[in-house]
Amino acid sequence: MKAISLLKGLGLLFLTTIMASCSEENTNIAAEKNLIGTWSWVSTSGGFAFHINDTPATTGKNIDLKFTGDGKYLYYTNGILSSEGTYQFSTQKSIVDGTYKKSIDCPFLVITL
Q1: CB 21 within 8 A of CB 13
Q2: Whole-structure pTM value
Q3: Strands 37-40 and 44-46
Q4: Is the pLDDT of residue 21 over 50?
Q5: Alpha carbons 106 and 66: distance in angstroms, whole number
Q6: 29-51: string of b/e by CB count within 10 Å (b at 16+)?
Q7: Residue 3 is assigned to a structural domain of this protein
Q8: Could you say which residues form the signal peptide (predicted)?
Q9: Does a structural domain hold residue 71?
Q10: Please, are residues 68 and 85 in contact by the beta-carbon 8 Å criterion?
Q11: Cα-trace Rg, the chain
């Protein structure tokens, strides 16, 4: 009887581990699908004492960031390709609340989801 209970417990632990792994992978796939496309910069605010409040109108720059389904990004400034490379998902510690959050890593920026 103890052997059967032990096998059931190990089977449940194995199944739970597999389900947790699949769920994480599915979450990343869903996040990547939602990310794919072109994103246009609207504003930047913050900085020391919140003195930064930039927009395309105040800077004269229209910035678009395009993410492709094959892990590449394209960064455009005023319609001209400024930078390109690859991105990947990771987990980063938030400077706001100290918790770990999913992030997108690109060579020029880190985006917290």
Answers
A1: no
A2: 0.61
A3: unpaired
A4: no
A5: 12
A6: eeebeebeeeeebeeeeeeeeee
A7: no
A8: 1-20
A9: yes
A10: no
A11: 21
The count of domains in the chain is: 1
Contact between 103 and 113 under an 8 Å Cβ cutoff? The reply is yes
Residue 2 inside a domain? The answer is no
Comparison of pLDDT for 31 and 77, the residue scoring more: 77
Half-sphere exposure of 71 (CA within 13 A, CB side): 8
Domain residue limits at 37: 30-112
Weakest mean pLDDT among 13-17, 18-22, 27-31, 49-53: 13-17
Cα end-to-end distance, the chain, whole Å: 48
Query: How far apart (Å, rounded) are the C-alpha atoms in residues 93 and 65?
Result: 24
Report helix, strand or coil for 44. strand
